[in-house]
């Protein structure tokens, strides 16, 4: 063998040996394999900088505020969190719950708010409020109390700082430093300016107060939780059990009473808005249209009616601008924009089966439909009134990718909408306040998250975080063995099309038959099959020799109401049918072993893992169910009743949607795990299931995590969790006889 061939072989061997093997331990260690994508990205209101939170190299969970300065093109730390506060941050129970709802984890600067002028910033940190003036380069501590201040913001004209303390609204005059308490009855079940549990968890509304543009008024919600059942919930930790008294609005049970008021900053008086005779309602959104015009969205308990109402606070006159109705439910959105140069507004609706944008005037007259077609708008992103442009993200090209588009505000053009983003994948955008440019957070199956700055034509101005997988990137050593998933679609027996993602195993041999892990979520408002950077565990299992398969069943998002609505009053039915159709498709593939197909999911996915194992045990040999809902009567009103109706009116639907009528259908091995301090999907869901299976004499495996919430945070917890799941599938699928 000549030297040239020997050198070539030696190089190949060296290259192969240099690739590191992906392990579960490495997946949850620092630095993160998929790089450091900054979070909380924002344009400053003056358009001079892009700011974001970034973890430290020596401590990835401690965050500082950074900036990309547009004028000089430099990226630098703007505010060091240690200059504001050092040491342990002891959070109040209310703030812990709020952060859990926001999915915020870490220390240091976790939130920040710009002043409208862009000359100062607010930081809630360690329970107090810090006001940072850019010109001075230093922070002023506005509060120093034992009480915890939350939901901190600067008023629109920059005169005041507002916050919530002990369930009341306070303001600080920045010129005088004087503090004023604006509401006084916040205690016990009464909360002023705060978002109730279901607003935080289900409506994506994290606040309960809103400044008027001229900062003369604050609109706020007064929440009375006294009607809500007070339950005792146990949080089980390693060394103790905490008994938590919590007002939890379970499906079919009473909700909070809610009032909408307008505070006059000068007089301190409150004007209460007439919400109508019906009191069992939701107020999911509030927004000022003008200095004297306040809009709010009114939703009935069934969530089949949503009204956009407008109130003149000077006269007290109120009118309904838009009414949305559905035989199933009306989805909430944030697509409301009041034009500043005319009495018009933009609103989105699913009335024709797909979410699209509409233009109205302030009398409620529909002027024009801005988008149309058998595809969905994701979100209204920005409006440039001067140029007459409307920017939005949507799925016009394929439901598996999100792109940025622009259309004309005045009249529909032949080329509208025009696609701006070009790279195939998922684009999440944040526009400048004047719509002069945008931040793009992008990924696809081969590219971990990248953040870049663009002009409105889509041209990249600069990288904020290129996150390029070069020799200095944590992923580089694993890149050689990285498996690219395949996408496709098939027809279900009922005729609808289902999209899937499939990983072939490492060292794939088409003549062999492989075990399969079906990764599932299956619930509403979620889509898994997208051209985006995926969960590392799916990649890991493919590298361990599994086919990894995911299909988005009916009920999941971004396919229109006809695809989403079949789950109404029938959860756990069509979703299972579509997952079974996915297995039938898998069985047509020559490299799939039809006798070694397992299923894994968490939360709604945990519910789906149970339902597929119980109702279709001949299709799924083994299953892993994480933090599952087992009885929808245990879940909250706003989420559950939206899809299932009120259990007092449709008890049989709830019984059919619970897992218990089907538990005896379990054939194969089942692993259940749950956090023992879960305040979202209560641990009671699993204890009821444990009792049912034991009473049936059915064997199963169980793992509980003391002190852990729904997301099971913590490096060692995650390593244990996923090692356990891998071991379970290895025992029952990979190494099965």
UniProtKB/TrEMBL annotation:
Domain of life: Bacteria
Peptidase S9 prolyl oligopeptidase catalytic domain segment(s): 539-735
Pfam families in the cross-refs: DPPIV_N (PF00930), Peptidase_S9 (PF00326)
InterPro entries, alphabetized: AB_hydrolase_fold, Peptidase_S9_cat, Peptidase_S9B_N, Serine_Prot_S9B/DPPIV
Domain Dipeptidylpeptidase IV N-terminal: start-end pairs: 124-448
Name this protein carries in UniProt: S9 family peptidase
Organism whose genome encodes this protein: Microbulbifer flavimaris
